[in-house]
Amino acid sequence: MNVKVNERWKHVMKTAQHDSVIENILFSSDELERFYRIQNKQASPVYEIAFCGHFSAGKSTILNELIGENILPVSPIPTSANIIRIQNGALKLEAKMAEETGPRIFKNEIPWNRVREWGRNGQDIEHLRVYVPLPWLSKTAVISDTPGVDSTDPTHGDVTVDQLYTTDMVVYVMDYNHVQSETNLHFLKQLTDERKPVMIVINQIDKHSENELTLDAFKSSIRKTFLSWKIKFQDIFLLSMKQSDNPMNEWPRFQNELKSLMYYNDHLIEDAAKRLNIGFYERVRKRIIEDIDHIIEEYNGEILEIRSSPDELKTFEDTLERYQQALEFQNRIQEDYQRKQEKLFKNIVLFPHKIRELTKVWLESEGKSRKPGIWFMKKKWQVERDKQTDVLITELNDQIQTQLAFHIKKYFINDVDLHYIKDVDAFQKKVYDTNIIIDESLLTSFRKKGPVSDAYLFHFTDQITTHIVSEWKKQAEDLINEVLDHSRIENEVHIVSLQNQLDSYNHLRSLYNEIEDRKSIYYRDLEQIESILDDLKSPTDYYRLIDDIRNRAVDYKEKPEKLNLIDDGNPAIEKPTEIFPDELIESDYDVAFTNKRIKQFSDLLKLEKPGTFLEDERNQLHSQVNRHINQEFVISLFGAFSSGKSSFANALIGNDLLPVSPQPATASISEIRKSDELHQHGTIVVQFKTKAELEDELHEAGKLLYETLTIEGLKKWDSTRGNQKKTIHQSTLDYVSILQRGLEKNAEMLEREIKCSIDDLGLYAADEQVACLVERLTVFYDCDLTEKGITLIDTPGVNSIHSRHTRTALKQLNQSDAIFF
Q1: For 168-190, what is the mean pLDDT?
Q2: Alpha-carbon span 27 to 13, nearest angstrom
Q3: Dynamin N-terminal domain spans which residues (predicted)?
Q4: For the domain 45-264+552-566, what is the CATH superfamily, name and number?
Q5: Does the pTM exceed 0.90?
Q6: Considering only CA atoms, which of 467, 459, 470, 428 is closest in space to residue 341?
Q7: Mind giving me the DSSP string for 249-271?
Q8: What is the model's pLDDT at position 573?
Q9: In the chain, where are the structural domains located?
Q10: pLDDT tens digits, one per residue of 57-105
Q11: From CA 204, how far away is CA 131, in angstroms rounded?
Q12: Contact 429, 366 (CB under 8 A)
């Protein structure tokens, strides 16, 4: 909901530079809250670095190591439900409970079990603040520990996002195996859009194995993904809190740089405050643009309800625009003519210095020719005077042509709308033939007796200029009147025609007016926001300044005090209750009765004629019955990407069959079963997608990207053009790009089924440009597991950067007898 600034906020906004403008903008309630918090923070400036990331990635562990004591809650389950702020000062805990007026304060001690318990309570706690005497943590520095962004408790992510509104820098912590999760990438993209400087920490680097993927390849893949998502960051740090001596561990560099930023933060506070304001207004601008889009989408729905299409509204808008132009046609032509010709006539110069001098000589010779004298002397003067007259008239006519006639004719040929003139060629010939040529009689008619002074010369040339301009004005007005006369009748007919067309769109006129009225309010706000952003010029060297400060050495002599952390007897983490009883109760199972019922069910399915109604469900039941009869059992491995599904499958098989990587490796369904008469051990059958299946995928992707996508159209598709809303669905955009590249190389594989060797498994299972076209991989492999009739299904990991993986994995669940999660 958007609301005007009420009295509650005016006292805050009066402190802002643009308070008079802000009071007229329709802000949402969330935006007002954010603005209030930014202003409150800037009243007491601090530089705040927030640690965030997905839950249990090691944020609290890293902070505890940084502080030197186990102050913050640590657990493999989501524990921090509140923002816990750490500031420099005498040892103290401040806990503000929602139902209490003042905070609970514990001085000279930190009852850390209570802190952990309160840290998990996200409803009753307003804030937790821990003061620790740390010499590298300046008085204006704050470190915040936030809940996980993808915790099972959705309020955790909300708390974290809310905190970032007033955070100056973010340290984003990720588990080594889940760097390229879609959750992480969306969150980092949001931080980039918010102009937040980000330091990326990849924790648990001790999980890395050079046998699976080289460290250089791992780093390169991450940077490539961040570049694709347009994610900006200051640096990437590889950490291991478990193995401090791990050669890949960059803990010393990380802690030194972070402490430098906290120690010298006073150099950053001013620019950081400005960037918070810029980020706020840019966010409002983005919201306004989205609201304008939503208005159009909302009315498109209403247009469809009255059996009109968006194209019909566009036609109506075009017709209305042409109608308005037709109504203004006469005035527009006349106003354009007056504006341009008046400027031409006003600024015309027909007597530059050279012609003025010729005119002066001619006037003087005219006076001399009238004096009495010898006859042959007068004749000589007459010859000389005729020459001077010819030169003057020639120069003056040339000047008229270049400075006046040329521009008038050019205007009528190029600028005037002649589409109502029936014979354009005849009219243009008339324009070309229009001319005014002066002769001696014109000059003589303005010649007066008297000496040729400068004043006289100015008056004479001014009279000639006025006369010539007047004559050309008459000619030009005759031409423009001819245009108007010809167009008047035709234009009136056109107006009537357009009016009739508009009458047929009466059902859209009111909607159109509503759209324009509502959009105008947002455009007004947008204009004001743009004005504010123009004034708030972003500090261009901010990131460079951060890099300079984080590489400084921290110069402090004090040592951190030994903290008095007490155990008050309250358990920090509750023990999990037993999920399974000590003894499993075996139930009686009658094999003969089961087989009898299965046969009855199978016979019933055979009686039902195949059809489109519930066909998928019917086929699934057939498949389950056949698996029971043939003593087959399907187990699907399902879970997050890089959680170890393929490694687990390899362990069950007893061989390193499937590709393994900390990146999303399994890109298609891989089915492992025992060999049969048609497929010997080590054979792979690759079933590629049909064109219909791929067209369906592109249709769904197109909805998210606001485009119509087809296999044929994908050949000329450009991922960089079009609606900015594509960035909201970056994973879909990436997938379509991969499909485009895959089809360029392997389009002929669609609809096909091929057999190949087990050596080619990595190509079809893990290479995304090939696997995106694969429907299913069947690996015929004999081992203890498959010999028992068990078929093992390895699915792509969910929540990876490839959204297709999640859809593919979920589809497989319905076709399984058991799931290993």
Answers
A1: 86
A2: 12
A3: 49-205, 635-821
A4: P-loop containing nucleotide triphosphate hydrolases (3.40.50.300)
A5: no
A6: 470
A7: --HHHHHHHHHHHHHTGGGTHHH
A8: 40
A9: 45-264+552-566, 325-503, 592-820
A10: 888 889 989 988 877 766 544 444 578 889 998 888 888 877 778 888 8
A11: 28
A12: no
